Amino acid sequence: MTKVSDVELEILKVIWDKEEVTSSVIIQEVEKFHWSDNTVRTLIRRLQAKGAIKRSEERRVGKECRL
Fold first, then answer.
1. Is there a contact between 31 and 24 (Cβ–Cβ < 8 Å)?
2. Which tens digits make up the pLDDT trace of 15-66?
3. Architecture of the domain whose range is 6-61
4. C-alpha to C-alpha distance for 19 and 38, rounded to whole angstroms
5. What's the farthest any 2 CA atoms get from each other in the chain?
6. How far is CA 16 from CA 9, 67, in A?
7. Beta-carbon contacts of residue 41 (< 8 Å; ≥ 6 apart)
């Protein structure tokens, strides 16, 4: 099982709350943490690399999670 960091978990919480979500929506949802757009996109890429999430055909981050 792949471990995720606490900040990656915050991204996952947003994804789990939605059926499908774009990176722009995730950025808006985690605004309270004052992370840059690039930071959020990096966290998304890390989660994809870990196999925790995958990108759908429409280039949206899907809800699928294999933790």
1. no
2. 999 877 889 999 999 999 999 999 999 999 999 999 998 887 665 565 554 4
3. Orthogonal Bundle (1.10)
4. 23
5. 29
6. 10, 12
7. 23
